[in-house]
Write a structure and sequence with these properties.
Layout: H1 2-11, E1 15-18, H2 19-22, E2 24-27, E3 42-45, E4 53-55, E5 64-68, E6 77-80, E7 85-86, E8 90-94, H3 102-111, H4 113-117, H5 130-134, E9 137-140, H6 143-181
Parallel strand pairs: 3-7
Antiparallel strand pairs: 1-9, 2-8, 3-4, 5-6, 5-8
Helix pairs in contact: 1-3, 3-6
Keywords: DNA-binding, Endonuclease, Hydrolase, Nuclease, Restriction system
Organism: Phocaeicola vulgatus (Bacteroides vulgatus)
Family: Belongs to the type-I restriction system S methylase family.
């Protein structure tokens, strides 16, 4: 998927702007670990790829881009389709300007995730400074081109997810059948 995205984004023409020019970068609010549960209404995103736990409230609406701020996976870009709690080691992309399609921006940032990850500083608990993320350059083509690119890449992303789900189901069925053969 990343090779296809790279091909799109290396060949587009448009205005080059900074991330801060087209959106607000908002740092989340920390929730004490004692208030997190193993299941709940809303997941809590912090500095990782997976949720830190669950919480009974949310502070970020659905369909929001998040970028991990701290930890070994800082710079990880995610599109959150449900409301969630943005923790203290998570940035969210808010108030995107009208000339930028949200899914286009997500795919652009995801394609450039390795570059974003290189913005990290520190070694014990690495993190990405908001000021450095704000200076990250984004190519913004005309809105019609953004919509075409984001629709195509979103479709590919869904296709990859369906194929992954099928593979997991087939592997599970295979294991079940093998166990039945040798009972």
């Amino acid at each position: 998927m990343s090779a296809i995205s790279e091909r799109f984004f290396t060949s587009i023409n448009g205005d080059v702007v900074t991330l801060a020019d087209i959106c607000d970068i908002v740092k989340g609010k920390q929730v004490n670990g004692e208030f997190l549960t193993d299941s709940g209404n809303y997941y809590v995103m912090n500095g990782g790829i997976e949720p830190s736990g669950y919480y009974d409230d949310y502070n970020t609406e659905a369909n929001t881009i998040s970028i991990s701020e701290g930890g070994n996976s800082c710079g990880y870009v995610q599109f959150n389709t449900t409301p969630f709690w943005s923790g203290g080691h998570c940035y969210t992309i808010q108030n995107i300007t009208n000339n930028v399609e949200k899914l286009y921006l997500y795919h652009y940032l995801k394609c450039n995730e390795d570059t974003i990850m290189k913005l990290r500083i520190g070694s014990g608990l690495p993190n990405i400074q908001k000021k450095d993320l704000a200076k990250f350059r984004v190519i913004v083509p005309i809105i019609e081109q953004q919509k075409t690119i984001s629709a195509f890449l979103s479709l590919l992303e869904r296709k990859v997810q369906v194929e992954t789900d099928i593979l997991i189901a087939v592997q599970s069925e295979k294991q079940y059948l093998l166990r039945q053969m040798f009972i």
